[in-house]
Zinc-type alcohol dehydrogenase-like protein
Amino acid sequence: MKAIAYHHSLPITDADALLDIELPTPVATGRDLLVAVHAISVNPVDAKVRKNRAPKEGQPEVLGWDAAGVVTAVGPDVTLFQVGDKVWYAGAINRPGSNSEFQLVDERIVGHMPASLDFAPAAALPLTAITAWELLFDRLQLSRDKSLTGKSLLVIGAAGGVGSVLVQLARQLTGVTIIGTASRAETADWVKELGAHHVIDHSLPLAQEITRLGLPPVDYVISLNQTDKHFEQIVELIAPQGKFALIDDPEHIDVRKFKGKSVSLHWELMFTRSLFQTADMVQQHELLEELAQLVDAGIIKTTLAERFGTINAANLKRAHALLESNTAKGKIVLENFN
């Protein structure tokens, strides 16, 4: 089967940063599905792993944690899917990724694809939607009751992949007042369109921006990037007994500064359930099933922003480069193999 992989961790400008290769087609066992990959999207984690995880000797590393495709074979213990099902998923970070014609993935982290979407717009959603869902409802434990108003949520980096679906989920499923951040007119308009009540500029002091809007201290803060840059402002603007969640890997933040306000801290990694085979791993399947219903009902929209052509090394290198520039809006999708 065709695949895109790397043998050495290299800058994306290097000719060998990502390569077109051939690999044996894997065989489904246990609870695994063998999926024929039709579309993938690219996430910051792809670039992060490429830069920081060296492959084992003689074993090329296949990246990719977002896909939509068709089940072509099932393991003997599979109960949730059958051959021919259209599916979407984000996969597991400790297994070969979706940048290949066929991929093995545990059925417990897979959902049936929304009937209203083609493969490309479907592939844009799984990783970011799972991350956003777990941030809101597992980590911060927001109530899914739109009548419960009076609380506020600040989303730092609201125009990115996770932010653009998180704002939608928060607006459609909760009663919180949503404040998104963006630094350009184009991305600010995007965040408003997705459902944010207010948009502020994260290139300015955030606490000052909250005050300018006449808003009280914020009850919930989610930081999706550059947490170390914004941390002092977060400490200042968050409400006493507030909740703070993040997904990035910041340098040198002193969480002791939250003590005076009794602020709780929550880290989110959507791969935790699959990494540790947790007892509640199937919740990601259930989450994706519910999300598909929300998409088919027109409540949640795909965050596909750019199509980068067929799935090959050249196009994936362009996608990695754009992500590393920190200027991407929404999700980058690639479709089909040559």
About this structure: The chain has two domains: 2-126+302-337, 140-267. The two ends are 11 Å apart (CA to CA). The longest helix spans residues 126-139.
